Amino acid sequence: MNLLHSFLLPPLHMATSFQFLLLLLLFIAPSSLLAQSSFRPKALVVPVTKEASTLQYVTQIHQRTPLVPVNLVLDLGGQFLWVDCDQNYTSSTYRPARCNSAQCSLADASGCGECFSPPRPGCNNNTCGVLPDNTVTRTATSGEVAQDVVSVQSTNGFNPGRNVTVSRFIFSCAPTFLLNGLAKGVSGMAGLGRTKIAFPSQFASAFSFNRKFAICLASSSKGVVFFGDGPYVFLPNVDASQSLTYTPLILNPVSTASASTQGQASSEYFIGVKSIKIDQKVVPNINTTLLSINKEGFGGTKISTVNPYTVLEASIFKGVTEAFVSASAARNITRVGGVAPFEVCFSAKNVGSTRLGAAVPTIELVLQNSVSWFIFGANSMVQVKDDVLCLGVVNGGDNPRTSIVIGGYQLENNLLQFDLASSRLGFSSLLFGRMTTCANFNFTSAPSTALRHHDQGSDFE
Ligand SMILES: *[C@@H]1O[C@H](CO)[C@@H](O)[C@H](O)[C@H]1NC(C)=O
Ligand SMILES: *[C@@H]1O[C@H](CO)[C@@H](O)[C@H](O)[C@H]1NC(C)=O
Ligand SMILES: *[C@@H]1O[C@H](CO)[C@@H](O)[C@H](O)[C@H]1NC(C)=O
Ligand SMILES: *[C@@H]1O[C@H](CO)[C@@H](O)[C@H](O)[C@H]1NC(C)=O
Ligand SMILES: *[C@@H]1O[C@H](CO)[C@@H](O)[C@H](O)[C@H]1NC(C)=O
Ligand SMILES: *[C@@H]1O[C@H](CO)[C@@H](O)[C@H](O)[C@H]1NC(C)=O
C-alpha cells in the first residue's frame, strides 16, 4: 500500500479531475490488490487436543504482534473469542474498539466504557464492551471489544498450507479471573457460535469463503477444526465431507448463556431430535414438549463441546437408561453399580468389541425428516475401570434449560459440518466405519507451501 500511495500521489498543481480519479482508484485499489498479490486460502485448519484432567477441548491460534501461540478452550456455541488481557498481553497492534464504531456494532456492543487506571489492553476510555462468558463455569463479566492480528494455517483439505493472518480480528478482553475452571495453560475461549464476530463468520468474511466450518474431535491426540468448505481429508485419504447426512440447524430465539446475556438469540447450535430409539425400539413416553424449544428458550437439543458427556433431562434420562439397560440385558450384558458421574454401568465381561467400539445397544437420535444420528459403542461407552464400562450420559435433573445436550464424548471421531448460510448440520457418523479417525488429519505441511507467510486484510478494518 505504501508503494501505491507514493506512486499515485499527485503533484499539488494537478487538475481536480485527476484528484477525482485518484479518489476512485483508492476506493478500488484495496480489493484488486488483494486479489492479485495476496494468497486467498480456500479453508483454514486449527488443531484441537483434549485436556485429560478437565476433558476440555483446547485449540491453538497465534495472535498479537509479535505473534504468540494462544491456547483456547473450544466453545462450539460460544459468542466470540475472548482472552485474558490482564496477564501477559503485549502487542504493538492491539486496538480497542472506539464507541459507536463498526466493530462495536458487529459485536452487538452497546454503551461506552471508561477505565480508571493507566491505559492498557482491556482498559481504555471511549471503548464499547461485551459480556465474555466462561461457559464451563457459567460465569460472565464485561470486557472491552478490541482488534488484533490473528494467524492460523490455511489448508487444501489434505495438509496445512501457508499461514494466513487477519490483521484486525475482533475479540473481547477479559479479566484473569474468568479463566478459573479452564484447563491449565489456556488464556481464553474460542467461540464458534452463530454471531457475526465468532470465528466462522470473521474468517469467512476476511477470506471470502462460505460460512461453513467443521469440527472433528479426537479422544486423545490431535483433532481438527476446519473453517471453510471441504475436502476434509483424513489418512488414508478419506474425505469426510463426501458422505454427510444433513439435518436443519435450529435457532433458539433466547440465549441460554449466563443471565447477563439473556434477551438475545442464542449463539448455540440446536437440532431437532424427534424421538430416540435403542436397538431400533422407540424409547416410550418421552415427553415431546421437552424436545422442542419453547418461547422462553427452554427445551430442545443442542450440541456442545464444553459438556464432556451428553446431558439428558431427568425424565428423558430415565426413559433412555431403562431402555438401554433392558436392551443390554437381552444381550446378556450384566449391570454393575454406577461410577460417578455415571449411573448406568456394566461388567465388561460379556461385551464383545467391534470396529465401532463395544458391542452394546445402538442409540439412535431420530431427527427431522427421518434421518438418524446413530451412537455406537465407541461414543456411548466410557471405560472407567479394566472391567467396567459406563453409559457416558449424565442426568440433567428436572427443568434444565436445554433438554438434551449432546456432549464432547459423543462427538468424538464424528465429523460435523456447520453450514451457517444454509442453516444445516452435516454429520459423518463414526469415522471408524470408514477406517479413519479424527486424529488422522495429516498435520505435516507439504514442503512447497510450508515456509511462506502472507498477510491478508480483514473485512472488519
Ligand atoms: C507470558 O508469555 C511468555 C511468552 O509467550 C510465556 O513464556 C510466559 O509463560 C507467559 N506468562 C504467563 C503468566 O502467562
Ligand atoms: C479515562 O478518563 C478519565 C477521566 O475522564 C481518566 O481519569 C482516566 O485516567 C482515563 N483512563 C484511561 C485508561 O485512559
Ligand atoms: C505457521 O503456523 C504454525 C502453527 O500455527 C507455526 O508452528 C509455524 O511456525 C508458522 N510458520 C510460519 C512461517 O510463521
Ligand atoms: C411435558 O413437559 C412439559 C414441559 O416441562 C410439562 O409442562 C408437561 O406437564 C409434561 N407433560 C407430561 C405428560 O409429563
Ligand atoms: C444369553 O444367555 C443365555 C443363557 O446363558 C443363552 O441361552 C442366550 O443364548 C444368551 N443370549 C445371547 C444374546 O447371547
Ligand atoms: C503427510 O503429508 C506429507 C506432505 O504432503 C507427506 O510427505 C506425508 O507422506 C504424509 N503422511 C502420510 C502418512 O501420508
From TrEMBL:
GO cellular component: extracellular region; Golgi apparatus; plasma membrane
A GO biological process held by the record: proteolysis
Signal peptide span: 1-35
Residues spanning the membrane: none
Gene Ontology MF: a single term: aspartic-type endopeptidase activity
Subcellular location field: Secreted, Extracellular space
Pfam families linked: TAXi_C, TAXi_N
UniProt cross-references to SUPFAM superfamilies, sorted A to Z: Acid proteases (SSF50630)
First-listed, main subcellular location of the protein, grouped into a coarse class: secreted
Occurrences of domain Peptidase A1 (ranges): 57-428
This protein's record includes keyword Methyltransferase: no
Protein name: Peptidase A1 domain-containing protein
Lineage: Eukaryota, Viridiplantae, Streptophyta, Embryophyta, Tracheophyta
